[in-house]
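Work Package 3 (structural annotation) set out to generate three-dimensional models for the target panel prioritized at the project kickoff. During this period the team completed the workflow that converts sequence records into discrete structure tokens, so that structures can be stored uniformly alongside our sequence database. As a representative example, we reproduce one entry of 206 residues exactly as it appears in the project archive.
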Amino acid sequence: MSILSRRLLLIAAAGASLALAGCSKGGAGSAASAEDMTLGDPNAKVKVVEYASVTCSHCAAFNETTFPAFKTKYIDTGKVHYTFKEFLTPPEQVAAAGFLVARCAGKDKYFTVIDALFRGQQEMFQSGDMRGGLLRVAQSAGMTEEQFNACVADEAALTALNSRVEKAIRQDGIQATPTFVINGKKVKEGDITMAELDAAIAEASR
């Protein structure tokens, strides 16, 4: 069992007191694979990929301030096919547990759970109650505490997550979160505005 796996088991068994770290640098792809979570029309001309972590404060800020307008303008209208690619930032075990919970909730609830994790991120880190915060999100998605414990202790799911993250680093060259890739071109690392997205999508639409 890996060190990360043991830490996830600790999250399942007891609370963890950890401090929030900045969005880490690791290390771009454009095509969505079967294990990726996506929104919008797969046949859309413009493909937007976001590499993000649920423990990244900049990712949470994008989710709150920019993503709703981006989704309304481009995803819901069929102009953009959006892919969310998971990445791990400190504390990695909390990020991993969050992603495992989102996947355990099911594809239909995945993005709802991700949104809840982003919105609850600050409170969770301020309180230091990582397990409690994760459990509350899991329960809001219909999971019992027993299901939550089993979910974050799933070794196979963690191995698959680690493989996706390693691929992002080694194959896609991802070094920070959030990173935005549009039609295979890395357009921004870090905070991105709606105006920047508008310009990049307009260029990709030509």
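Residues 3-195 form a domain with the Glutaredoxin fold (CATH 3.40.30.10).
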